[in-house]
Design brief:
The complex is a heterodimer of chains A (253) and B (243).
Chain A lengths: L14 H13 L7 H12 L3 E6 L7 E5 L2 H13 L3 H7 L3 E3 L5 H6 L3 H7 L4 E9 L2 E10 L7 H24 L17 H14 L3 H14 L4 H9 L17
Antiparallel strand pairs in A: 1-2, 1-5, 3-4, 4-5
Chain B lengths: L2 H16 L4 H16 L3 E7 L5 E6 L4 H9 L5 H8 L3 E3 L10 H10 L3 E9 L2 E10 L7 H19 L7 H29 L3 H14 L4 H10 L15
Antiparallel strand pairs in B: 1-2, 1-5, 3-4, 4-5
Helix pairs in contact in B: 1-2, 2-6, 3-5, 7-8, 7-9
Classes of the chains: A alpha+beta (253), B alpha+beta (243).
Chain lengths: 253, 243
């Protein structure tokens, strides 16, 4: 049993994921992929001018984690200060894809943000939620000076990169508990329903939030060198029960 | 099949579409009606995740092994072929498809299915998902049932898009991604209830669904409230708990 290699044991790993993972690994120069690498890759692959990740963990106010340039940084500031915009709507709903910020419906929906964002140099905004069911991690915002839709291919790439941003944010939390340096594009195992069912069960068992439950499951899987979906299946079948942090049983990686 | 039964289902679905409704609950009911109307053993709906793969979004039964069988087809099987070609795929005898889909065929046989059909969910030139039907008896669907099945798949597409401005790609993306995330949310809520009530996850879904109905709340909203802790869900006294 080796550590995860890209796509190992998961035949649903698509060519798209492998291709994007190669670009990300290159951006990280072989090191740990972080949010700034995801943003840089988004700009280079999706054909937008800038990108940013803002996080909204644990009911804290929105925090900008990374912006690729001044424009993105200014637009994120606007979103934070005004409390409106595609990047706000996407944190509670689905993706918000705005092909033309000067369109009348945009001014109706975001009366202050839309004109201010146009002045700041944005023609189009694509805000992708970073969420796993009820776990809200933040948002990946893409900005482009030119108005116009994202193509289907660009959208697919952007959605995969948003998945990666989710994984990176969860990993940041996981890494505090477990020393690991391996990464792969499919290591999140989030396609498997058992992972989400197990998240709910661990929430009750440990009395923690959904985000913490998922992080604990991931940490356990890494420490045992097992796939997340296999650990989750054990939890769902009640063959495995995670112990509260600090007690022996699931920390002996 | 009685024509009135068919008419009743379409009236039920049309009624739902008028109200402010929950997409997942709508698709779940639709999957149940497919089983009744078409006389098959199980039905499921899979949607594109817009990242080259399909995801299960609703099924006529939440039995874990059935969900796994649907999920497996995100990798290989009639649903994936139907999704990629936009054409119906019908297999009257699953013992003959081992070479074509080895993992899927083995898994379907294990659950006891003998025949499988997949019908595309189409939106103009796009295919956004597939309706998947399983039967424990071998055999093809006759022409009439195929047409009804396709009509139900089309109703699912309409329901998903909630009759909004479906020519706009941004709405399609928002609806698809929100539906898929709702499905994840429901899985998390199932886990919470399974552990809290000490039932299995399939039973947890039935309790969750009954709870949403009796409270007149959307399935996904109630699931969100359970997962974020704002709702201390307790089933009613008439809930069908084991023991």
């Amino acid at each position: 049993m080796g550590k995860d290699n890209p796509g190992r044991g998961d035949p649903t790993t698509s060519d798209r994921r492998l291709r994007l993972w190669a670009v990300l690994a290159d951006a990280a120069r072989g090191g740990t992929v972080a949010v700034d690498h995801v943003c840089a890759t988004t700009v280079s692959v999706v054909g937008v001018d800038s990108a940013a990740v803002a996080v909204i963990l644990d009911a804290t106010p929105r925090v900008l984690m990374h912006a690729t340039d001044r424009t993105a940084s200014a637009l994120e500031d606007l979103t934070l200060i005004l409390g409106e915009g595609p990047g706000v709507d996407a944190t509670t709903g689905g993706p918000v894809l705005v092909a033309d910020l000067t369109a009348p419906e945009c001014r109706n929906r975001w009366p202050v943000f839309a004109p201010a964002a146009v002045l700041a140099g944005a023609g189009a905004v694509f805000a992708l939620p970073l969420r796993v069911g009820g776990i809200r991690l933040g948002v990946l915002d893409l900005y482009r000076a030119r108005a116009g839709d994202l193509g289907a291919e660009q959208l697919a790439d952007a959605l995969v990169l948003a998945d990666t941003a989710c994984a990176v944010l969860l990993d940041d939390a996981t890494r505090r508990g477990v020393d690991r340096d391996d990464q792969s594009p499919e290591r999140t195992g989030l396609r498997h329903p058992e992972v989400h069912q197990a998240t709910g069960m661990v929430m009750v068992q440990l009395g923690v939030s959904a985000a913490v439950a998922l992080v604990r499951l991931r940490a356990y899987a890494y420490s045992q060198d097992r796939r997340l979906q296999d650990v989750a299946a054990d939890v769902v079948a009640r063959r495995l029960r995670l112990e509260p942090a600090g007690t022996p049983g699931d920390q002996n990686g | 099949m009685a024509q009135t039964q068919l008419a009743d289902v379409f009236v039920e679905m049309a009624d739902t579409l008028i109200d402010d409704f929950d997409v997942i609950e709508f698709l779940h009911v639709l999957a149940e009606r497919c089983v009744e109307l078409l006389g098959v053993s199980a039905a499921g709906l899979l949607l594109t995740d817009q990242r080259d793969t399909l995801q299960v979004v609703a099924a006529s039964s939440e039995r874990t092994r059935l969900l796994e069988l649907f999920q497996l087809q995100t990798d290989q099987g009639p649903c994936l072929d139907c999704f990629r070609t936009g054409q119906p795929v019908s297999v009257a005898d699953l013992t003959l498809t081992t070479a074509r889909w080895p993992r899927f065929t083995a898994a379907a046989a294990e659950v006891g299915f003998a025949a499988v059909h997949a019908l595309p969910m189409r939106l103009r030139s796009d295919v956004i998902g597939a309706l998947n039907l399983f039967d424990v008896r071998p055999g093809a669907l006759d022409e009439g049932k195929l047409r009804i099945g396709q009509a139900l798949a089309d109703v699912a597409t309409i329901g998903l898009l909630q009759q909004r401005a479906i020519h706009r790609g941004d709405i399609l993306t928002e609806q698809l991604q929100t539906a898929l995330n709702s499905r994840v949310l429901i899985e998390q809520a199932k886990g919470v209830l399974a552990e809290r009530l000490q039932v299995d996850v399939g039973q947890a879904f039935a309790i969750l669904r009954d709870g949403a109905r009796s409270r007149n709340r959307r399935l996904s909203e109630l699931s969100q409230a359970i997962v974020d802790g704002s709702e201390q869900f307790a089933p009613g006294p008439d809930a069908n708990l084991p023991g």
